[in-house]
Structures are given as structure tokens and as C-alpha cells.
Write a structure and sequence with these properties.
Pfam families: PCuAC (PF04314). The chain is mostly beta strands and 158 residues long. The chain contains 1 helix and 10 strands; from the N terminus they run αββββββββββ. The structure holds copper (II) ion. Copper (II) ion binds next to strand 8.
Length: 158
């Protein structure tokens, strides 16, 4: 791992742990009735079409957690892609932009977190077939409190 990335990751770790503790204390009852389906708003989720032979794809969209939450993992069926990760884009020591996996994603209370080109995104590796405009990809989002959301993500140019 790049030396410049480590402090950022450590900081991210600290912020995430801190964030989720405070949220739990502030809303001791809020999460209990919501187990099973995470209380988050998902907007504008879409995947970009990929050319023939491409092995990677990306999904974008906006997540808002009214009470705060943490996105723990993302999944698609194995017949869509071999591996899925949350990525962010950072500048490396040489000044180039690089993608880095994010172990989890903090969702501050009522603050939209945008996954967009050039920033955070859901990354698909090992695509079984190109992502075709007009079709959909079923994406599962797993959140801190055990809640999950499954959505049919449209594939479109945007
Ligand atoms: Cu990526």
C-alpha cells in the first residue's frame, strides 16, 4: 500500500467508528424497528453501458440516510460480476488520480452521499457480459444495522 494512502485510511477508520458510535447513542430506538430494510433513500442509481470485451463497470447514485448509517458492503449476482467494491478516487504522489477500495462508507445523518464519475462509485470487476443500455443490474446494499436494500439498477448513458 502506498505510504500516502495509509494515514488517510487510518483517519477514515477513526471517523467511521466515531460516527457510528454517536449515531447509536443519539438514536437508541430508531434502528430497532427498521431491521431488514435499511432506512435510507436511494436516488438516481444507474450503471454505465460497457463496450464489448470490457471487464469492469461502475454504478453511480446518491444515498441519503436520514438517521445516519454506514454502507458496509455491495453485492451483485456472480453471473453479473466476479467482484464488487466501493471505490473512491484519490491523487497519488505522482499527482495522478487512482481508484482505491473503501472498506465501508460513512453516511452522515441526513447528508446525501453522491456516487458519481470522478468520485465515489460502485466498481464491478470481472463482468460476465457487457452492461447493455436498457437492461438492469440487481445490486444489494448492506448497511450497518443489518438492514439491506436490493435495487434493479438501470443501465443507461448519462
Ligand atoms: Cu473503481
Amino acid at each position: 500500500m502506498n505510504r500516502n494512502v495509509l494515514p488517510v485510511l487510518v483517519l477514515l477508520f477513526a471517523l467511521v467508528s466515531l460516527g457510528s458510535c454517536t449515531k447509536r447513542e443519539r438514536h437508541p430506538m430508531a434502528s430497532e424497528g427498521l431491521r431488514g430494510e435499511a432506512a435510507v433513500n436511494l436516488k438516481g442509481f444507474h450503471a454505465r453501458p460497457t463496450p464489448d470485451g470490457a471487464t469492469v463497470g461502475a454504478i453511480f447514485g446518491t444515498i441519503t440516510a436520514p438517521l445516519g448509517d454506514t454502507l458496509r458492503a455491495v453485492k451483485v449476482a456472480p453471473d453479473v460480476a466476479e467482484k464488487v467494491e466501493i471505490h473512491r478516487i484519490v491523487q497519488n504522489a505522482a499527482g495522478q488520480m487512482e481508484m482505491r477500495p473503501v472498506p465501508w462508507l460513512a453516511l452522515p445523518e441526513d447528508e446525501p452521499v453522491e456516487l458519481k464519475p470522478g468520485g465515489l462509485h460502485v466498481m464491478l470487476f470481472g463482468l460476465a457480459a457487457p452492461l447493455q443500455a436498457g437492461k438492469t443490474v440487481r445490486l444489494t446494499l448492506l448497511f450497518q444495522d443489518g438492514g439491506e436494500r436490493v435495487l434493479e439498477v438501470p443501465i443507461r448513458d448519462e
